[in-house]
Write a structure and sequence with these properties.
Shape: globular
Number of helices: 11
Distance between the termini: 16 Å
Order of helices and strands: HHHHHHHHHHH
Structural class: mainly alpha
Mean pLDDT: 89
Number of strands: 0
Strand content: under 5%
Radius of gyration: 21 Å
Helix content: over 70%
Length: 252
């Protein structure tokens, strides 16, 4: 790590949550697993408030894995996760609420960092999302401009990294389409043809349901994490890529 602060701790604790989500997808979110997940989520919320990005991922993974109609199973387990996370993190957020009148204290941060929005102009989510310079700055910060941006990287290196990342994303899309096509063929095939397909198929395309949900959960994590960066940028000029670093392992 090129930094040693609560950001790096947030990566650790949020990654623990992601790991436990994957384990939960494997074992259908046992009660014990949910307890550990709640504890990890509480630590993540203490590390950095952007850990809230994990909450919708937990909900989506749990509901899809257990089945949305089985509300009697996923609702109590989800409540257990949130209850333990709340108990672990409550003292800090109660202190924030008592001291600043909100659990985020963003109004006070804006007063303290007066230079972070001197003109008072706010940018919308879409203005940032489709701004080429905004995206390029975030890309640079992802690889080297941490914090005070003292680690320079050449544009050539950044373009190479971008090309490799795009290639990897294309590979993910192709793999997803291959898997989806194979699963569709299995559903439509007669029994004799099904056995033939099973014999001649690599395990890479015969993913189980929980694995498919796991890939979806990682994608959702990345999307929600980047949205958090955009949301912060609606108030502050200096929104940074490190705010989505808790999702770095999901991106990987």
């Amino acid at each position: 790590a090129a930094m040693l602060n609560n950001d790096i701790l947030a990566i650790l604790t949020t990654s623990a949550c992601l790991y436990l989500i994957v384990v939960g997808l494997q074992n259908r979110f046992t009660v014990g697993l949910c307890a550990w997940l709640g504890f990890a989520l509480g630590l993540a919320l203490l590390s950095k408030s952007t850990a809230v990005i994990v909450m919708p991922v937990i909900a989506i993974a749990m509901i899809l894995r257990l089945g949305w109609k089985r509300i009697g199973e996923w609702l109590p387990k989800g409540a257990l996760v949130m209850a333990i996370a709340g108990i672990v993190s409550a003292p800090w957020y109660l202190y924030m609420l008592k001291t600043y009148g909100s659990i985020s204290a963003l109004d006070y941060i804006l007063k303290l960092q007066w230079w972070n929005n001197q003109d008072g102009v706010t940018n919308s989510i879409t203005e940032q999302l489709f701004n080429r310079d905004f995206a390029w700055w975030r890309w640079h910060e992802t690889w080297g401009w941490f914090g005070w941006r003292l680690i320079p990287l050449s544009d050539t290196l950044l373009r190479v990294l971008l090309a490799l990342t795009v290639l990897a994303m294309i590979g993910l899309v192709v793999w997803s389409l291959v898997v989806a096509l194979f699963r569709w063929r299995v559903r439509k095939a007669p029994f004799s043809r099904l056995r033939e397909l099973a014999r001649g198929t690599d395990r890479i395309v015969t993913v189980s349901r929980w694995q498919a949900i796991g890939v979806l959960a990682m994608v959702v994590t990345c999307i929600v994490a980047y949205y958090a960066v955009l949301q912060f940028g609606t108030t502050f000029d200096l929104t940074q890529a490190r705010y989505y670093f808790p999702a770095v392992n999901a991106g990987a």
